[in-house]
Amino acid sequence: MLVLVDLDDTLCNTWEAARWSVLRLLPHLIRKGKFKALLYILTQRYEELEQSRELHLLDLDELVGNFMERVYKSTSEKDLKEMFELVDKTFFSNLRVYPDAIDFLKGLKEIGAKIVLITDSSSEWQRKKLEYLNLKDYFDSLIISGETGYSKFEPYNFILAKRMFPKEREIYIVGDRDDTDMRGGKEIGATTILVRRGYFKSLMPKHADYIVKDLKEALEVIKHEHKKRG
Q1: 122: Cβ–Cβ under 8 A, 6 or more apart, which residues?
Q2: What DSSP assignment string belongs to 42-83?
């Protein structure tokens, strides 16, 4: 059995931690007189970045730089460094593993599953999260878009995961986003399990075989499917 698992907003509260970072950034922008950037955030124009494949390969400081470039033609290195340090500190002080994540991963191990983390963003950023959250040792392999050069909008990383474990015919994917995790799972014939939480929880799914409220329920679905397949 092979289980592909997303990181952000599936195992940990990335969106919530990022939201706190944005809130902490607002008074900094006011003090610096960066009112155009403030307006960009308050009007939620950052939502236009959701579908950007390029941004799914970037590190946090690159994301901050990209955001400022969209608002201003140029920003000093000093200002960027101050913003990055503020956002980084706030983000990690609010980043948490979901209460059901460890039991979920342990439960998969108990039934003999191979577990592959398949996640977007840069190598440094995602590996830093895994170390901070003490999650790395639960995975048999890590596939990070910043290392492969492909985001989860494309099937490459899902196909790669399947090729890593060619003997595993029973494949599941668990994630929070339909247009990446679930669609990618469908590309390789996986049973797709959408966890309704995080930033994308209100969107209507098109590619999920199962929709669950948490990882406890996701584990039960996998156990049920595994038993059904004999």
Answers
A1: 57, 58, 59, 62, 144, 146
A2: HTTGGGGGTT-TGGGG--HHHHHHHHHHHH-S---HHHHHHH
Q: Residue 11 contacts by C-beta under 8 Å, 6 or more apart in sequence?
A: 5, 97, 98, 101, 104, 105, 133, 135, 215
Spatial CA neighbour of 215 closest among 54, 107, 82: 107
Q: What are the pLDDT digits (tens) for 158-200?
A: 999 999 999 999 999 999 999 999 999 999 999 999 999 987 8
Long-range CB contacts for residues 53-58, cutoff 8 Å, separation at least 24: 53/151, 53/153, 53/154, 56/120, 56/121, 56/145, 56/151, 56/152, 56/153, 57/120, 57/121, 57/122, 57/145, 57/146, 57/149, 57/151, 58/121, 58/122, 58/146
pLDDT at 177: 94
Closest CA to 160 of 8, 54, 2, 50: 2
Task: Look up residue 160 and give its two tokens.
Answer: 């790669």
Neighbours of 195 (CB within 10 A): 29
* Angle (nearest 5°) at CA 156 between 154 and 161: 130
Q: Is the dihedral of CA 134, 137, 138, 141 positive or negative?
A: positive
pLDDT at 68 over 80: no
Compute the distance between CA of residue 165 and CA of residue 97 in angstroms, rounded to an integer.
27
Q: 166 near 77, Cβ under 8 Å?
A: no
Is residue 86 scored above 60 in pLDDT? yes
Reported pTM: 0.85
CB atoms within 10 A of CB 169: 11
